[in-house]
């Protein structure tokens, strides 16, 4: 049995349909899901850019490296300068990518 049993016919002109399709494309949602979300008052956000997943992976890697350096520093009381410089280089590279693409 269907969860949504009520059908509401909706007539749109060309301009309205074009705007709806633009919103569907930007949100990444299906047309029906977009309309349900709007009816329920959900704040709609644009779909993340294609480079978003790659950026998140890089940031996650940077955080993992920082955690490893902190663990070494806590265990042995020191971290080599090369590791610190590599972390700084990675942080700057990711910052540039965020700055240029967002």
Walk me through this protein's architecture.
With 102 residues, the protein is mostly helical. The protein folds into two domains: 1-47, no CATH class; 52-101. 68% of the residues lie in helices and 0% in strands. Helix 3 (52-76) runs antiparallel to helix 4 (81-101). It is elongated.
Question: Any descriptors?
Answer:
NikA-like, 4 helices, Bacterial mobilization protein MobC, 2 domains, about 100 residues, single chain, mainly alpha
* Proportion of helical residues: 55-70%
Number of domains: 2
How many beta-strand runs? Answer: 0
Proportion of beta-strand residues:
under 5%
Shape designation:
elongated
Average predicted local confidence, pLDDT: 82
* Alpha carbon gap, first and last residue: 44 Å
Structural class: mainly alpha
- Main sheet characteristics: none
Task: Round the Cα radius of gyration to an integer and report it.
Answer: 23 Å
**Count of helices?**
4
Order of helices and strands: HHHH
User: Spans of 5+ residues with little confidence (pLDDT < 50)?
Assistant: none
């Amino acid at each position: 049995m269907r969860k949504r049993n009520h059908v509401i016919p909706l007539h749109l002109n060309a301009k309205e349909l074009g705007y709806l399709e633009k919103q569907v494309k930007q949100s990444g949602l299906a047309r029906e899901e977009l309309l349900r979300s709007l009816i329920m008052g959900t704040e709609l956000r644009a779909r993340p850019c294609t480079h978003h997943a790659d950026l998140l992976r890089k940031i996650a890697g940077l955080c993992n490296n920082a955690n490893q350096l902190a663990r070494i520093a806590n265990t042995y009381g020191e971290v080599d300068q090369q590791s610190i410089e590599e972390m700084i280089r990675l942080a700057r590279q990711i910052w540039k990518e965020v700055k240029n693409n967002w």
